[in-house]
Design brief:
This protein is of the alpha/beta class. The chain has 2 domains: 20-117 and 271-468, Zn peptidases (Aminopeptidase, 3-Layer(aba) Sandwich); 119-254, Aminopeptidase i, Domain 2 (Roll), CATH 2.30.250.10. The chain is 29% helix and 24% strand. The protein has a 9-stranded mixed β-sheet with strand order 1-2-3-14-4-15-21-17-19, with helices on both faces. α8 packs across α13 (454-468). The structure holds manganese (II) ion (MN) (2 copies). One manganese (II) ion binds at residues 274, 305, 446.
């Protein structure tokens, strides 16, 4: 029999052979836990400043510039040691850092996340009044559960291109003194029929009308007095006329600020963790990297929530163009550079939630506070739509993380046949680049107020640092 101080054969063997997820807060040392809590402070500031993709791009540029990055435009010379950013139409961003290594042999290390998030977009001819209230018609953006967006404070963000061609930034509802906006819901007293409907149809998309006013313009000759009063306020503040909505991009987002959750402050609730909770670790990792050998790229893409379409989404050729430009700058074959490049597709995953255990498969779900979650495949109904990473690349990433003491775990997006989803990984795979999904487990994903663990945020940052080091 083993002495107290020695492990029994079985325990020693178990430790060696059996895979167990490790909870960061249980296993990490005190200093690392403190680092995780400190890191969360910067993230919470970033996410509060980044409620739309445009704002995330601005906040990311400000951060990158503070770390010595300068703007790149196509045609600019690219040299070893460069730290550059490419601003794609103010809605997506590429950061790159050029190292000494031969990129045709070693490739480029790429971190690709997205900065758009589900929200309520204002239609092009939105303003009307009815029964003492003025509203904006909307069309929601991304996969939302519509009932979650009623009866909460909303802020209006975006840009308006005026008839003159001038562009004005709009942001109302974020300062404590600002008014907010609101989508009406039905009182339970009169919801006898509504509450019997499935969640998907209980709130009709065309009823997500945003209340923007209730005070009439004092003139008996005017028909739509409240509408006119709203227009006069917009004109006063932004120089807008009604026709300017036609060339505007305005969105309603939750007016909440990020907050610590729990008595122990282990968690963070915020709007739009998906996917700024991966964008921030990617930006901080590349900006703080002091290595001079590897070439690395961080992509902050737009439009992931609607299929990565458009000229700011991951399917746009601009990201490939940048890789090619870097290759040409050193006289290398872009095909060779891409073949030897490696990418982490940085996006959130569904965290196991014991309140909805039935849609998860516990052995393969990501668990809260167990670290950055690797997802070999996403997709739905038989892995459909997934890029499914090679075992070789998963093995490479796993070894790298273990060597760098990163807390990481595996993840699957819910039970087989429960549903599913995709990421930008498959669009990167198209470029002949090895790619693996990794990210922060999220509770209540796509809700107006999502939840993550500070342990997973920090572990994802450590994972990205190790990857581009
Ligand atoms: Mn996402
Ligand atoms: Mn999403």
């Amino acid at each position: 029999m083993a002495k107290d101080t020695e492990k029994s054969l079985g325990v020693a063997m178990e430790e060696k052979l059996v895979y167990k997820k490790k909870n960061f807060f249980e296993e990490a040392d005190e200093s690392k836990i403190k680092e995780a809590f400190d890191y969360a402070v910067g993230y919470m500031k970033y996410i509060d400043d980044s409620k739309t993709e445009r704002e995330a791009v601005k906040a990311s540029i400000a951060y990158a510039e503070s770390k010595g990055f300068t703007e790149y435009n196509f045609g600019d010379k690219i040299c070893v040691g460069d730290k550059k950013y490419y601003n794609n139409r103010g809605k997506s961003l590429v950061l790159f850092k050029i190292g000494k290594d031969d990129i045709s042999k070693h490739g480029i290390r790429i971190l690709a996340s997205h900065v758009d998030a589900p929200r309520i977009d204002v239609k092009q001819n939105p303003l009307y009044e009815d029964s003492g209230m003025a509203f904006l018609k909307t069309h929601y953006y991304g996969g939302i559960k519509k009932y979650q967006w009623t009866a909460i404070p909303l802020a209006l963000h975006g840009v308006v291109v005026l008839a003159s061609g001038d562009i004005v930034d709009v942001c109302i509802g974020e300062d404590d003194g600002d008014p907010v906006f609101y989508i009406n819901d039905l009182l339970p007293h009169l919801a006898r029929e509504q509450v019997t409907k499935p969640l998907a149809t209980a709130i009709d998309g065309e009823t997500l009308n945003v209340l923007v006013g209730g005070f009439p313009f004092k003139d008996k000759d005017v028909k739509d007095k409240i509408k006119l009063s709203v227009l006069s306020k917009l004109n006063e503040k932004y120089g807008m006329q009604e026709a300017d909505f036609l060339s505007a991009e305005l969105s309603l987002v939750p007016a909440f600020k990020s907050r610590d959750v729990g008595l122990d402050r282990a968690l963070i609730a915020a709007y739009g963790h998906d996917d700024r909770v991966c964008s921030y670790p990617a930006i901080t990792a590349i900006c703080e990297d002091e290595g001079d050998e590897k070439t690395s790229i961080v992509v902050l893409a737009d439009k992931e929530e609607i299929g990565s379409e458009g000229n700011t989404g991951m399917q746009c050729g601009v990201y490939e163009d940048i890789i090619n430009e870097i290759a040409y700058a050193f006289g290398k074959s872009p095909a060779m550079v891409r073949r030897n490049s490696k990418c982490l597709s940085a996006d959130v995953t569904a965290c196991f939630d014991p309140n909805f255990a039935g849609v998860y498969e516990k052995r393969n779900s990501s668990m809260l506070s167990c670290g950055a979650a690797i997802c070999k495949f996403t997709g739905s109904g038989g892995k459909s739509g997934s890029s499914d990473a090679n075992a070789e690349f998963v093995g490479f990433v796993r070894k790298l993380f273990d060597e760098n003491n990163v807390f990481w775990q595996t993840a699957e997006l819910g039970r087989v046949d429960a549903g599913g989803g995709g990421t930008v990984a498959k669009f990167i795979a198209k470029l002949n680049i090895d790619v693996l999904d990794i990210g922060v487990p999220v509770i209540s994903m796509h809700a107006p107020y999502e939840l993550i663990s500070k342990a997973d945020l920090f572990s994802t940052y450590e994972a990205f640092k190790a990857f581009i080091k």
